[in-house]
Amino acid sequence: MASSAPPPRPRPERPPQRTPQPARELTPTDRLLAALGGIVAGFGGLAVAALVGVPVRPEAGPVPAVGDAVVDQTPAGVKEWAIRTFGESDKAVLEFGILVLLGALAAALGVLALRSRAAALAGVIGLGAVGALAAVTRPDSDSAADVLPSLLGAAAAAALLYVLTGRLLGPSPSLDAGAARRGFLLTAAGVAAGAAGATVLARSVGSTRSQHATASRNALRLPRPASAAPAVPPGAQLPVEGISPFVTPNRDFYRVDTALVVPRVDADTWRLRVHGSGVTGEWSFTLADLLRREVIERDITLACVSNEVGGSLVGNARWLGVRLADLLRECGVRPPSAGGPADQLVARSVDGMTIGTPVETVLDGRDALLAFGMNGEPLPFAHGFPVRMVVPGLYGYVSACKWISSIELTTFAAYDAYWVPRGWAAQAPVKTQSRIDTPRAFGHATAGQVAVAGVAWAQHRGISRVQVRVDDGPWQDAELGAEDSTDTWRQWLLRWQATPGRHTLTVRATDGTGAVQTEQRTGTMPDGATGLHTVTVTVDAASG
Q1: In the 8-state DSSP scheme, what is residue 87?
Q2: Are 255 and 380 in contact (CB under 8 A)?
Q3: Quick check: 336 and 286 in contact, CB under 8 A?
Q4: What is the rounded distance in angstroms from the CA atom of residue 351 to the CA atom of residue 348?
Q5: CA–CA distance, 242 with 454 (Å, rounded to integer)
């Protein structure tokens, strides 16, 4: 019997295929919101970096680390322009500029994420890598942990950008654009609020190192000096409105350095290392060691080489410390004139700054100090706590190392300190300068007797004479305030019988050696500005 063929198997039914829905068309509003999302994500990343910087150190954050690298690579002429233009606000301007640039990059990456989230996230991680590299290659970096603020901050920014872009695009193309945008804005607002709170928290808590540094400064009790500075003589401060105070308050004392974040050094763990050519072995000193030495107090005027003619980057303070020369001699150091092999002292700061000072100058009998007190209180952090160098007669960039951590004895031929490869002279004694404080440039005065007054300085030589010229008239001798010492500035006053009209006032000084301040005008590079300070004033006729 013939077998029958098996019945055909039924074919499985295919599930109904979904018709792909076209992606929502992006509008200029979407791109604008995407840019906003990138900025908010970047803000969140910086906030995370700030929080991570608390247990690590604030200087390792992406903005300070990149800023310090920018400062190091900036040509000297540009730095001088920044100091002339922005004064002591140059660091704040740089930080603001970095934040603006980061904001622009973040906005661009936010827009890019609309087309390729992978490419945008790679860009965020790349920026984090740049910050990490800048942090770990800084001279003051002492731990691989310095990469963490930038890397973890970038990771957080990448995650936030991914989430915000997803909110903007919506979970499905069919979602109403308005609903997607509302969801994005709510999420962005939450991220921004959280980032703001994290930033405030990081700043209020501060790093552990910073807390210890503050506690150590608060606990420091300055010793009574074995050699006190004489009282400021009567007449050193002239009774003239508008003249600079003879002693510059700490809050008003100029600050010029390359540190975007002021180092906060714990005085209890601070050490000063002395080593190098001609030094008998390795020496290390604590702050307690210095406090047990003979402490001296001196009034000394400091001036910055970046100070333009008539500029304000000069100040006078009462410093407390120990003689640097005595400490160096105990370490075996001899000046070149006595057969010592080193002619340069290289002071290194905790932030990596190096400053070269002539050994002969430090050992020639002047009051070169390792200072820990300023105007009756421990050094402010911004001025070098716990210890800094002060050498009268030299510009700060070749003498006044703040936050000092080591001293190496070497030669000028063997080593260039930080500023020398950047176009500045290796050695720079202070040049004689004078400044008109009152009347102000382009100001007005009333006909009759007008006080023309100001300050003049030539540290370690002193000021013996100040003269003022009105328009093209003869030089007239000004009254001099009492001299405190040759290491401080000196006030002066001319009682001018002013006549109505526009007048130009010019001042010049003569130092203690009899050398008259030069009229030749030069810029600050390579070793300090020269020229005479002039102001133009308008004298109004007396009423009545």
Answers
A1: G
A2: no
A3: no
A4: 8
A5: 9
| pLDDT tens by residue, the chain, 544 residues | 444 555 666 665 665 555 444 456 788 999 999 999 999 999 999 999 999 988 888 888 898 888 888 877 777 777 677 777 777 777 788 888 888 999 999 999 999 999 999 999 999 999 999 999 988 888 777 788 999 999 999 999 999 999 999 999 877 665 677 888 888 999 999 999 999 999 888 887 766 678 889 999 999 999 999 999 999 999 999 999 999 999 999 999 999 998 888 999 999 999 999 999 999 989 999 999 999 999 999 999 999 999 999 999 999 999 999 999 999 999 999 999 999 999 999 999 999 999 999 999 999 999 999 999 999 999 999 999 999 999 999 999 999 999 999 999 999 999 999 999 999 999 999 999 999 999 999 999 999 999 999 999 999 999 999 999 999 999 999 999 999 999 999 999 999 999 999 999 999 999 999 999 999 999 999 999 999 999 999 999 987 6
- Does the N-terminal peptide bond of residue 439 adopt cis geometry, omega within 30 degrees of 0? yes
Burial class (CB in 10 A: 0-12, 13-18, 19+), 292: exposed
- The type of residue at 249 is P
